[in-house]
Each structure stands twice: as structure tokens, then as C-alpha cells.
Design a protein that fits this description.
By secondary structure, the chain is mainly α. Helix 6 packs antiparallel against helix 7 and helix 7 runs antiparallel to helix 8.
Length: 280
């Protein structure tokens, strides 16, 4: 499925916005590609009347729109609705459609907590950290009988990672420790130590190390990995471009600097806005 796919049909002037993934779709091909690669995010909540109208008016696919509207009305199995959406996809062959249908059936039969975790994992991959956090917290709230300590250890770990990516290091350290208590994974203890290192003033962090909340060996390993990350980031194209602009530091470069950092700020603000709603 990799590579470039040509869009043969109508390109919408107004995209369809998939809120949970923060994705804008402009064509039928993009719709099929999104569903195929995000089966855990495909559900009845996406099959709204506004979605059907977008198919009908913006993509000029009245036949597909009418079929989807009727299938939703009749509460048709979700797998069959997906197959109907894929029916005319020019780059999906029969085997790929069958594979997607099999995967979706497997997903629909999974325990709710497992579905939530994988959905949360996918949100985090898409940088939708607050959406991922909500899924993980819901798992912990419901405490499904089918889950086990190792599963919850993974959930707490991933919850900590999502919080860390939002710079909420205190929360991250607490979740990492919960994960470590359930499963004594040395890598999780390193993540816990890193969260303390990044979230606390130097003197407080040093005091915690002295009191044994993390070992000197763990602290040294964290410093080593942080240095490796610094070196890696310095070698990246974005960082090099940013350093080039900062080195000139003139007013003429202000617009260029804002352009380089604009995407970073938009992503951060998007996640912060999500954090202000229903995150507790």
C-alpha cells in the first residue's frame, strides 16, 4: 500500500474532517486509504449524515452515499459497510479487501479493553495524545475482567508515554511507576527516571536519586540516552534549519523562523486544547 496513489475521481473543495484522527480527506481514494490503515478508528460514529452528504455532494458519489445511508438505517454489519466503501477503490484488489474485512471482524470480536488500548495506541502514533490518554484512562476506569496485570502494565506505560509527550512529566512518572509495580521491567524504570529528570528542578531530582527512588546507574543511563537524543536531533534537517535561522537572528528572518516552528506549535496547541476538555 506504500507509494503514490492517483485520485481519479472528484476532489472535494471542502474536505471531510475526521476529528478523532485530525485528518482531512479530499477524495474517495484518500477515504479508502484512511480506513484501510486505521481499522481501529473506523466505527459507526464516523458514518454520520454529514459524512454521507459529503460523499453525495462534495465527491459526487450519490450511489455510494445512498447505499451507505440505507445500510446505516438498517444497522448493517460494519464489515459489509466497509466492503461497500471499498467496492470501487481502484488500488484495492479483492485480496486486500478480504484481508481488511477479516481484520475488522477480529477487531469487532476483541474485548472492549483491548480495542480501547489499540485505539489509544493508534491515536498516539497520530500525535493525538489527549485522545490516546482518554482511551487508556477509560480502560483503567472500567477494569475489564478479561484484562490481566501485564495488560494493565502496558496501559500504564503507554499512558505515561502519552503524558510525557505532552510535557506532563509528573503524571508520566506516576503512571510509569504504576506500570513498574505490575511488571518489573527495567526499561519502564528508566522511563520513570527520565520523567523525573525532565520534570523536576535539578536539586530535587538529585535528592530523589540520593534517597534511592532511582539508582545512580539508572540516572547515568538516562543521561547517556538524553545525550544521544540531543546529538540525533542536532543532526536532523529541521534542527539544522532552525539553528541556521537562529544564527542569523535578524528581524528579516522572523517570518522564516515562525514558518519552521509553526507546525510544532500547532500540534502542541491542538493537544493542549484537548487536555482542557474531559481529561480528568
Amino acid at each position: 500500500m506504500g507509494g503514490i496513489w492517483l485520485c481519479h475521481g472528484k476532489t472535494a473543495a471542502v474536505p471531510y474532517y475526521v476529528e478523532q484522527a485530525d485528518v482531512r480527506l479530499y477524495s474517495y481514494e484518500e477515504l479508502c486509504y484512511f480506513i484501510y490503515h486505521n481499522l481501529y478508528l473506523f466505527g459507526r460514529e464516523m458514518l454520520t449524515e454529514s459524512f454521507v452528504r459529503w460523499l453525495e455532494r462534495d465527491l459526487e458519489l450519490p450511489g455510494l452515499a445512498g447505499d451507505i445511508r440505507e445500510m446505516v438505517r438498517q444497522n448493517t454489519e460494519l464489515v459489509h459497510i466497509m466492503e461497500r466503501i471499498f467496492e470501487d477503490a481502484p488500488y484495492l484488489n479483492a485480496q486486500e479487501v478480504q484481508k481488511a474485512a477479516k481484520m475488522l471482524r477480529t477487531i469487532l470480536n476483541e474485548p472492549e479493553s483491548v480495542k480501547r488500548k489499540k485505539r489509544g495506541d493508534r491515536y498516539v502514533e497520530l500525535h493525538r495524545y489527549e485522545a490516546g490518554i482518554r482511551e487508556y484512562r477509560q480502560i483503567l476506569k472500567e477494569e475489564g475482567a478479561e484484562a490481566y496485570d501485564g495488560f494493565y502494565a502496558q496501559v500504564y506505560h503507554n499512558l505515561g508515554a502519552a503524558c510525557a509527550r505532552m510535557f506532563r512529566f509528573k503524571e508520566a512518572s506516576e503512571y510509569y511507576m504504576q506500570s513498574y509495580r505490575l511488571k518489573k521491567d527495567p526499561e519502564v524504570m528508566l522511563a520513570f527516571t527520565a520523567a523525573l529528570r525532565l520534570g523536576l528542578p535539578a536539586e530535587l531530582y538529585a535528592g530523589l536519586i540520593q534517597r534511592g527512588q532511582a539508582t545512580k546507574q539508572q540516572a547515568d543511563e538516562v543521561e547517556k540516552r538524553l545525550q544521544e537524543l540531543r546529538e540525533l536531533n542536532r543532526s536532523g534537517a529541521e534542527a539544522q534549519e532552525l539553528e541556521r535561522v537562529l544564527a542569523r537572528a535578524g528581524e528579516d528572518e522572523r517570518g522564516e523562523l515562525l514558518a519552521i516552528t509553526g507546525d510544532w506549535k500547532r500540534e502542541f496547541r491542538k493537544n493542549i486544547q484537548g487536555a482542557c476538555v474531559g481529561s480528568r
